[in-house]
Design goal:
2% strand; mainly alpha; single chain; globular
């Protein structure tokens, strides 16, 4: 079972990953976006870590809902609302249970991903964060490692795609040949989940 402490560690691990990869995320975003994806997420997840430390929530759902609120309020551009929606809706789907199973988390994440798709009006193949999140949510039903691998593969698969949503879509064919920064950061989020599970023996 995955308790609030597990979800707290997931967010902390994600923040550390974003710190390490911020320059790379911004470099990817400089090619097809506003060159601020790394710095924006870095600021957002730092705020998440600070808020969780100040008053640690007592349930998995509450951890994710607090994280989502922080991202919406501190991350600029489209990333804040999209990531915030992902975590808030996932947290809401988990409800008030003091602990959840890996399968329940996978199902809840699927709900969160669907909310992101609805908010952004995007689907698989549009060269967005969904290209990592959709396969990840599906694969998490097997294991956290499978979810991590599916997210990474999905992010890499955005390279040959032409963007059809978001800032990159304005570039048309010039967006081809670049890895999507949102899909890349989404893969970091799922990789941090697998890392947290491996460190705690929480894999399925």
């Amino acid at each position: 079972m995955l308790d609030a402490d597990f979800f707290h560690r997931w967010m902390t691990t994600t923040a550390a990953s974003v710190d390490r990869e911020a320059a790379r995320l911004t470099e990817l975003d400089s090619a097809i976006g506003d060159a601020d994806h790394g710095s924006n997420l870095q600021r957002g997840f730092a705020a998440v870590v600070a808020a969780l430390a100040e008053e640690p929530p007592q349930t998995p759902g509450a951890v994710l809902m607090l994280a989502g609120r922080q991202l919406i309020s501190t991350v600029g551009g489209a990333s804040g609302p999209l990531y915030g929606t992902l975590l808030r809706r996932t947290g809401k789907a988990l409800g008030e249970a003091p602990a959840v199973t890996a399968e329940e988390l996978a199902q809840a994440l699927g709900t969160g991903v669907a909310a992101v798709a609805q908010l952004g009006g995007a689907q698989a193949g549009d060269k967005t964060m969904l290209d990592a999140l959709l396969p990840a949510a599906k694969a998490l039903g097997s294991s956290f490692d499978a979810g991590r691998d599916a997210a990474l593969e999905g992010a890499l698969a955005t390279v040959p795609l032409q963007a059809r949503k978001g800032r990159a879509s304005y570039l048309g064919e010039r967006s081809i040949g670049h890895q999507d920064p949102g899909a890349t950061s989404s893969a970091l989020l799922i990789a941090a989940l697998a890392e947290t599970a491996a460190a705690t023996g929480g894999d399925v």
